[in-house]
Structure formats: structure tokens, C-alpha cells
Amino acid sequence: MNPETYANLYGPPQPAPRQSRGEVTVGLLAVLLWTLTLASLGWLTFLFGMVALWGLADGMSWAEIRGSLLPYVLTVVGAAAVLVALAFAPGIRRLKPLTRLLLLGLLACPVPTGFALWTWVRLG
After folding, report:
1. How far is it between the farthest Cα atoms of the chain?
2. Distance, CA of 39 to CA of 113 (rounded, Å)
3. Which end of the chain is less congested by CB atoms within 10 angstroms, N or C?
4. Residue 13 scores a pLDDT above 80
5. Do 107 and 89 touch, CB atoms closer than 8 A?
């Protein structure tokens, strides 16, 4: 075996490079945005579920409830599909993973969070 190849394969371990302060900040911002987005979606899903239960208790049929929940479900699925398609777009794929998460979080966060805050204020 070539000694150089042996040294490359079995040489001393190389420590992973440390993350810079900027990478940590980008990661924390991405986590914050996605936590806010998912919490907002959870709140909205809870509200739509409660509306469906209230409708059932009030005597609505399953077809009426399905008709009222279908736009919400299709909107969430469509938005998720758009974000996945955007995440795999060539220009976005070249970004670092944390930067990509932050960008997608910036795009995903405002609408559900704004709508969740609006419902929170209206119900409160």
C-alpha cells in the first residue's frame, strides 16, 4: 500500500472546524422562525378542529364539515409543496443548509403567524 494513502486513510483524526458566530446566529434565527411557524400552524389546526367539533355537536353533516376544512388542509399542503419545491431549486440548493433553512423560514413564517395572531386577538 502506498504510504501516503495509508496516512490519508488512517492518520490522526482531524477535528471538525468550529462554527463561526455568524453560523450560530443564523441557526438560532432559523430555529426561532420555524418554531414560531409550527406553533402558529398548531394553533390554527386546533381552532379548525374545534370548529369541526362544534359543528358536529350543532348537527352539521360530515360533508359540510369536510367542505369547511378542505380549503385549510389544501392551503397547508400547497404551501408545504411550494416550500419543498423552492428548497430544491438550483439557486437555493447551493446555499449552506442553515442559510437555506433561514430563507425558507422567512418565507413560511409571516402568513400563518399573522393569521394566528389575528385569531388570538379576535378570540381574546
Report:
1. 80
2. 8
3. C
4. no
5. no
d(CA 40, CA 9): 48
CA distances from 38 to 13, 27, 91 (A): 39, 16, 25
Grid coordinates given for 110: 409571516
Give the C-alpha separation, 62 to 55, whole Å. 9
Poorest-confidence range of 10-14, 41-45, 89-93, 105-109?
A: 10-14
The pLDDT assigned to 62 comes to 87
Q: Determine contact, residues 109/36, Cβ cutoff 8 Å.
A: yes
Which amino acid would we find at residue 58?
D
**Domain ranges (residues) in the chain:** 21-119
In 15-93, which ranges are continuous DSSP H helix?
A: 21-58, 62-87, 90-93
Residue 83 CA to residue 77 CA, distance in Å, equals 10
Residue 74, burial from CB neighbour count under 10 angstroms (0-12, 13-18, 19+): exposed
Q: What is the pTM of this model?
A: 0.78
Whose cell is 376544512? That residue is 69
Answer yes or no: is pLDDT of 93 > 70.
yes
